[in-house]
Specification:
Distance between the termini: 61 Å
Helix content: 25-40%
Strand content: 5-15%
Shape: globular
Strand order of the largest sheet: 5-6-4-8-7
Oligomer: single chain
């Protein structure tokens, strides 16, 4: 039987986490700056190849709170284990994984964003934050940042601070929120390279050729077991060098690559920087 620390000695954040985990809410500790604790040496840069403590765990068997949002657990024995004890004593806050809890958090960062939500979105459960509000809907979707000024979506493969149960009745995730991450493809620009000798189409504009290239790039990123930053940059560089000069790439293709990178732990900012650096390296 798992030995639990006596209640009077349980750190405040751990007490909250144990209560949430017992109710089926996947929890993890946050350090200063409201970010997850860093991976242990064995899991650094995803060298272990997996994510611990999830409902469908990968090959990583690390028992520490590694891998950011993927460390979230609903098992009180894991949250209260000796491997997590030191971390809880250093924790600044408790977080949860909205997607694993079956919900989506619309993170409104300031008063203007709240005003926008009240005009645009259906009412649901709300939780006050330091500067704004969390609007919580039942249902999941991909996460995304800056979908509107001061508005982030936190759901699948993400985490949000636990700031209390909130008030109001939770309603179903509306299409209005789902539509916030859908972007219309950019129009294809005119071909900027000569047509091959003897006539025929530029191969970069052939749908099957382009689709195969994007699919291979997604697979290359997904298969990275270590050095994810470098793999993402090299993949972006290869895609842009092959398909970037004739105007065949759209925002939809770029979003697919960014999604694959973020699934490996890259932030939207890192993806944007890697894409920009690759374009610069190619003189684009």
């Amino acid at each position: 039987m798992t030995q639990h620390t006596p209640l009077r000695r349980v750190p405040r954040h751990l007490r909250t986490a144990l209560d949430l985990a017992a109710r089926g809410v996947p929890v993890l500790p946050l350090r200063a700056g409201k970010v997850p604790f860093a991976n242990c040496p064995a899991c650094r840069d995803n060298a272990c190849g997996g994510r611990p403590n999830m409902k469908s765990p990968g090959p990583c068997l690390c028992s520490r709170p590694c891998h950011g949002w993927a460390a979230a657990t609903v098992n009180p024995a894991v949250a209260n284990s000796p491997d997590w004890a030191t971390v809880w004593r250093q924790a600044e806050a408790v977080a949860f994984c909205p997607g694993e809890a079956g919900v989506t958090v619309v993170d409104l960062d300031h008063a203007e964003a709240i005003d926008w939500a009240r005009r645009t979105l259906p009412p649901t459960r709300t939780v006050p934050t330091t500067r704004g509000e969390h609007w919580i809907y039942r249902g999941t979707m991909p996460s995304a940042n800056a979908v509107q000024p001061g508005v982030d979506i936190k759901s699948a493969m993400s985490y949000a601070r636990w700031l209390g149960p909130g008030t109001g009745t939770m309603t179903t995730l509306p299409d209005t929120v789902r539509a916030l991450i859908v972007r219309k493809p950019s129009p294809v620009r005119p071909v900027a390279v000569p047509v091959p000798a003897g006539g025929g189409e530029c191969r970069h504009r052939t749908p099957a050729y382009l689709e195969r290239g994007i699919a291979m790039a997604e697979q290359q990123i997904t298969s990275a077991a270590s050095g994810v930053h470098a793999t993402v940059y090299r993949t972006f560089l290869a895609v842009l060098s092959t398909h970037g000069r004739c105007g065949c790439l759209t925002e939809t293709h770029m979003a697919r690559l960014f999604t694959a990178a973020q699934a490996k732990g890259e932030s939207p900012r890192h993806c944007a920087d890697a894409w920009s650096n690759a374009r610069t390296a190619l003189g684009m």
